[in-house]
Amino acid sequence: MGTVNITINDKQIKAQLGSSVLSAAAKNGIHIPALCDNELLDAKNGAACRICVVEIDGRKTLSPSCATAVSEGMGIRTDTDRVIKTRKMLLELIIANHPLDCDTCEKNNRCALQTYCSDYGVEDSRFAGGETKNYAPDTSNKFYDYDANKCILCGNCTRVCGELQVNGAIGRAGRGFETRVAAAFDESLDKSVCVSCGNCVSACPVDALLPKPKGKRRSSETGKVKTTCPYCGVGCQMNLIIDDNHVIDVEPVNGLANRGLLCVKGKFGMEFIDKPDRLTVPLIKRNGEFVESTWEQALSLIADKITDVRDKHGADAIAGLSSARVTNEENYLFQKFIRMLGTNNVDHCARLCHASTVTGLGTTLGSGAMTNSNAEILGADVILVSGSNTTKTHPVLGSFMKQAQTRGAKLIVIEPRRIELAQTADVFLQINPGTNVAVYNAMMHVIIEEGLQDKNYIAQKTENYDALKALVAQCPPEIAAKICDVHADDIRAAARLYASADKAGIFYSMGVTQHTSGTDGVKSVSNLALLCGNVGIESGGVNPLRGQNNVQGACDIGALPNVFTGYQKVTDEQARAKFSKAWGAKLSDKNGLTLTEIIRKSGEGDIKFLYIMGENPMVSDPDLNHVEQALNDSEFIVVQDIFMTETTAFADVILPATSFAEKDGTFTNTERRVQRVRKAIEPIGQSKADWQIIMALMSKMGLAQTYNHPNEIMDEICQLTPLYGGISFERIEDEGLQWPCPDASHPGTKYLHKDKIARGKGLFAPAPYVPSDELPDSEYPFYFSTGRILYHYHTATMTKRVEGIRKMFPKSFVQIHPKDADKLSIRNGDKLIVASRRGEVTTTAKVTDMVKQGLLFMPFHFADGPANMLTNPALDPVAKIPELKVCAAKIKKVSQT
Amino acid sequence: MTGCTKNKNQLLYDELAHFIADLPERKGALISVLHKAQSIFGYLPREVQEFVAGQLKIPVSKVYGVVEFYAFFTMKPKGQIPISICLGTACFIKGAKDVLSELKQILSIDVGEVTPDGRFSIDTLRCVGTCAMAPVIMIDEKVYGNVERKDVKKIIREHQ
After folding, report:
1. What are the strands, taking DSSP E only, across A1-120?
2. CATH number of the domain at B81-159, please?
3. Given B46, B49, B61, which is nearest A168 (Cβ)?
4. For each successive 10 residues of chain B (160 residues), what is the average pLDDT?
């Protein structure tokens, strides 16, 4: 972009063409006050407060600098008497009906209006004494309050809600003095479509929108620490606001991953950090009771046990479950520890989410990660969402998709539930659960039949096309329509729309992966993308959305039974030699056991020592009755966590770890971006960071490790891992880097397979549709599926400790279609027993036409009525991922509301 | 709700849906859609606004904001005989306010309200372009000019 020469207050400035006067001034250190300016928002919809007015040579009236573009030769004055007088008058007009209770106001000293009034010496208003607003504050939302009396109508909140969150829960209503920010029909916010993301609260310059509860700020001086959100895989950048070693608030940072947005969990979900029931001392089980111990006692006991087991039963009797919740450095140290003991029995819960992505995309493309970056969603022509309730599970990416739609992108949704995105989709295929492969194959049938495939791309960049063509020729939409229970013409429409795009991005998640055919599902998605030349381009690709904050990193860093860091195979002699030398230990050449195998073999007695770091298999794993039995029968279990969980009950030793807010390190988000986690507060009680605990344990076992800081661990990772070769704490200080990043001068990789597909050529891996392992029958007539909701996270260990969330969703529920409910005389709120061949749970009915008829859906977060009592542990033969998404179930009413 | 009214209501929604489907461009069509909706339903109740929002794929809060902004749009139902009284400058000066207060008193309702029997409602408007006849009352297409306080009762009786 070109530059223009402008003059501001006699200062010659080169400004970027297209930039506003306000931002050009700011870049040159000239401050212009503004109440409604926000870099994230479209200036066209702004210019509401007018405080930013300036004088421009040759113009009679003052111009709002936020909405005035610079032009060549423009002369601007920001400090004339006329400008100052106008600003003063505007401030006086605002405060004429704004409560002047600054001393007792929660926003005191942080209020933009207060600051400008003070800057301009405005103490009272010549317009005072007229009408004032008198609205009742709206305290109905569980996370924030709205006081319309304090609102100055800058419009930031409604613009954030409309332009960025693309939710439109609030808008302007009324006219003149009656103008107000309101939800539809002036209803209270809890009745609106508000998703409590709190981005409006963060954008409010005054005290009109404020987080609950009030009075958290004690000191006038608060600290601010930039870090990465510990919830989902989006990797939002945020500032933790610290007051006296407490995290009292969170504000979004405009990072590359999240573009200034957060969701309810990131904004309002940090209350868990210093809950009184945090684990603060090591605990040892004696005679069935946990008793407090010193770190020395606990670590000695563990070290002795490990030595004993290894001596008597060999290293393969030891296993560890690492964690997608802790940092890369901690995962590295954990798998290093387990491997140095002489076994590869290390895995983590990625086995339950994207194991099939790693095997599927590994086979077809050579890399099992998102091909594109989060923000590339904004540039896609067509977005295909399948098996992902994106607005709930990856809320910020869901907003990016909706933003893309407002820019003209078309949306295809393939889901068994009519999720939020389906409501505005251009094509929505409400398929039967577990029939993904059938619908993808039928789409490819249509594309090839109608000649819509990218023939050049296929010829140059792929192989095995003929086999795909032969397979999908057998899959006309009419057959898929029957299998999936959708219209054949809708499949055709989806196929044509997908194929018509220059840049089409596929986004998928557990709805594709958690099946016995998970690997086939992933391969089919990849086939579809390759068929239309959508791999290796910006904004087009295959994007598995990773669920947890660091599940990508835990995989990258080798918390898997078959690979070291960076997917270097343990069976590869060269790789083994490299790690063996670096670590000074003899390493096993045998693939280790997977998570589900580890749990089973612990119960069977083959595993004698199980180390669980930051995982909660007693809620997250399928077929909980069997998990419970296995953990009960296990010989020795160590659990390292921040809270007591359903799993800690089975532990012999519990070690108190620190939360993300108490340690340094890195997380790798779903778009392969390695981002900093920064210590914001001191550890609670005697808790220690996971890396410190493992380091101490290793030292105790004579595997002396000395790292002074996680950055030293990262340096070691980089030396051993080409994928991360160029990453260092220094380089990711401001913004994270995306792997592959092989050396210190490499800028990171925005999208994969750019010049060449990683495995050489994209492999078409035709896969026929295979039905789910267990289907509804006369005894168990319903499809049963599980998933997540917006407000809770994973096994709810953190979110159930957030008051607002607990109030909104205190207990489990099952979604059932109104017609099914009618047949069984079930009403909303009735108590039900849901049963499968593996167990039963008591839960509450939520009657909704969001689910298909014949489908029951239950979130898996809740330990009361845990959905995983029912799920089927049948495994995908390649990825060993269980079929969490489909089984057969029946229901019985227990009582009425 | 009886089957008959349900069908009638469905027909009204169908008419509105057709109007929206025939729009050359949905973007920016909100105001004309609301005009149409009000002409079909007589007013813009919540359900109609939600229907419009769904059809145009825009937030309900935005539809509501527009309905609230323009005085022309109303969320209150009108009577079978909607009475409009002009409060434009000429009519105002010539005593429209008196006429209005008489109207309100006789019907026992306020501006924007409907009589309990659903027969009459009162609305105000600004100038119908017949200032020479000020003050004026409009009922359907008929304009009553030079209305005085004492005339109001007679006019209402005409429609009872």
Report:
1. 3-8, 11-16, 53-56, 63-64, 75-77
2. 3.40.30.10
3. B61
4. 61 94 90 94 94 93 94 86 91 94 93 89 86 90 90 88
